[in-house]
Design a protein that fits this description.
Length: 456
């Protein structure tokens, strides 16, 4: 195979990378890619618009997902504007990985239990699986896993599928004395995050066929001692190969991805900080509001003529307290965890981009060295260069597919998040309004009674 003519990904059944148009590139315009090494043009190709789906499990590191056939601008600002909540987002619900009609692997994480031993205290979660896949011996499984088991699975997925975006896990460490990791609220929040992580993996057209996921879902005991050393060695070898070569230039579509991630991260960070302050202020306001209602209750006991109105005010304040508690609970348990998940998602995506850059740097370094040798003694292009080129092509195709899948997930998640936030706020203010309107009715009735008694 010549270096100037990229070949297809035989192991994944995909079209060659030269025929795949990334959705971030300019719409309906062929994209010409040229690699300059030593002043010579070595590759130029035009990208087509279509790509097919493959669920091949052979050579899982070279398999590819399915990008959505959409076009979008390549600038970071225009990419960020794609987060819109219009009716067109309903099409995301019909995406392949989200359709229950085509899915054949269903997983659920629930039923947290606390375990206390002489050495440690920890929480396990029930992982239930239902499937029709032939890779599984049984149609249903039910095992218990702790957090470190989920962490093991993610490490194994990163090791065996380095070209794919691996969904993030909730943060493992918490500040002692600030958050009780055995509290019901913390365990519930973590359980929801682990459930979302596992569902995202099970819905992925490539990751869901990983043998380590099969073991995680079906095995009673996991052998977690293997793989960590290999992962370290692989990472060190990549750094060693690419460490002496500086990447010439990241392709424009991947530059746009990096810029988008930076912008999105800043937005989420700002929203998170403001939301944290709002939550703190709501907690302080709630304390004052409870004390405020108690004053009216105690006053009603010493004012017989004003007892009913004062008790009515105390009741309104109590209702507003409960409504505010619900609103704060929604923000802490539903809103903030989604923000944190996507902050971690951004870091995962940046990590894949860095791996892609290392792969490209390795290819460019080997290619430049091979061209220099060829000019000196006319030796044929080494097989290692062709393998490096295939690896870069695989990275590009898989990253683009996962990027589009991630964008679709993000649109759905934030549409649901913002809609839920709007509903919770409406519900909060409706409860407060109804409480104070009932007080007006009570005061009007009291005024009518007073006039009647004066007339008599």
């Amino acid at each position: 195979m010549s270096v100037g003519a990229p070949r297809g990904l035989a192991s994944s059944g995909q079209k060659p990378i030269a025929e795949i148009l990334h959705p971030l590139s300019a719409a309906e315009e062929p994209l010409s890619v040229t690699v300059n090494v030593g002043g010579d043009k070595t590759a130029a190709s035009e990208f087509d618009v279509t790509v097919t789906l493959s669920l091949s499990t052979q050579e899982a590191g070279l398999t590819n997902g399915t990008p959505v056939e959409t076009s979008s601008p390549a600038s970071a600002s225009s990419l960020f504007n794609r987060l819109q909540l219009d009716d067109d987002l309903e099409a995301d619900v019909r995406d392949l990985y989200a359709s229950t009609e085509t899915r054949d692997l269903f997983v659920t994480v629930d039923d947290p239990k606390k375990h206390v031993s002489t050495m440690e205290t920890y929480i396990t979660y029930r992982v239930s699986t239902k499937t029709t896949r032939i890779e599984f011996d049984l149609p249903e499984y039910c095992v218990r896993r702790r957090y470190q088991d989920f962490d093991w699975l993610r490490i194994k997925l990163e090791d065996s599928q380095p070209t794919h975006l691996i969904p993030p896990l909730p943060e493992k460490f918490v500040m002692k004395g600030v958050v009780d990791r055995f509290s019901e609220e913390f365990v519930e929040t973590r359980m929801k995050a682990l459930d979302k992580f596992l569902k995202r993996v099970a819905d992925h057209p490539v990751l869901s066929f990983n043998p380590h996921l099969n073991a995680f879902l079906s095995a009673k005991d996991l052998n977690k001692r293997q793989g960590l050393a290999l992962l370290t060695k692989v990472g060190e070898s990549v750094k060693h190969v690419a460490g002496g070569y500086k990447l010439r230039a990241r392709p424009p579509e991947f530059c746009a991805m990096g810029e988008y991630l930076d912008t999105f991260s800043q937005k989420l960070g700002t929203i998170d900080r403001i939301a944290q302050r709002i939550l703190k202020e709501q907690s302080e306001y709630l304390t004052e509001l409870r004390e405020y209602g108690t004053v009216y209750s105690s006053w009603a006991g010493s004012e017989e003529e004003l007892q009913r109105p004062l008790e009515g005010v105390a009741g309104c304040v109590t209702t507003c307290c409960r409504a505010l508690e619900d609103q704060s609970e929604n923000m802490s348990q539903d809103f903030l965890p989604v923000l944190r998940e996507y902050v971690l998602y951004i870091e995962s995506m940046k990590n894949v981009l860095r791996k892609r850059d290392q792969s490209q740097a390795e290819y460019e370094g080997r290619l430049e060295a091979a061209i220099l040798r060829k000019q000196e003694d006319r030796t044929p292009m080494p097989v290692e260069v062709e393998k490096c080129q295939d690896k870069v092509e695989c990275f590009n195709a898989d990253l683009k597919a996962d990027w589009e899948r991630w964008q679709s997930n993000k649109r759905q998640d934030f549409k649901q998040l913002l809609t839920g936030m709007a509903d919770k706020n409406i519900n909060h203010y409706e409860k407060c309004q109804a409480a104070w309107e009932s007080l007006i009715t009570l005061l009007q009735d009291k005024q009518t009674e007073d006039k009647t008694s004066e007339t008599n």
